[in-house]
Specification:
This protein is mainly α and 110 residues long. It has 5 helices and no strands. α3 packs antiparallel against α5. It is flat and about 50 Å long. The chain starts with a helix and ends in a 6-residue tail after the last helix.
């Protein structure tokens, strides 16, 4: 859940939402439907994470946080993802760091 839902589904929701608004006009309707689906998946993952987090030991929460950070680092290391992030947000490193921190779940540490 922490990797597939909170990281990948959330990033997919962001990408599809952007495409729904800014993508090729003939595909926007399709992207709207996909974005809605990905957003529901991400929201469910985040709700499940909050529920589970309250029931896990500190050690288990630390393992999950570490896995989530690693998943974000792996995602951002992909050239295709770096290209997408630059296309959406430009070359502003502050925005890139904030996005990564948000996906990692540590945005309040910024």
């Amino acid at each position: 859940n922490a990797i597939e839902g909170a990281v990948r589904e959330t990033f997919a929701a962001l990408v599809m939402s952007w495409e729904a608004r800014n993508g090729t006009p003939e595909y926007r309707k399709t992207f709207v439907a996909i974005a809605a689906d990905e957003t529901r998946h991400a929201a469910l993952a985040h709700a499940a994470a909050r529920w589970m987090d309250a029931r896990l030991s500190p050690r288990a929460r630390a393992r999950i946080a570490k896995a989530r950070r690693a998943a974000v680092d792996e995602l951002f290391a992909r050239p295709s993802v770096a290209s997408i992030v630059r296309r959406f947000f430009g070359d502003d490193d502050v925005v890139h760091v904030a996005l990564a921190q948000t996906l990692r779940g540590d945005a309040d540490e910024a």
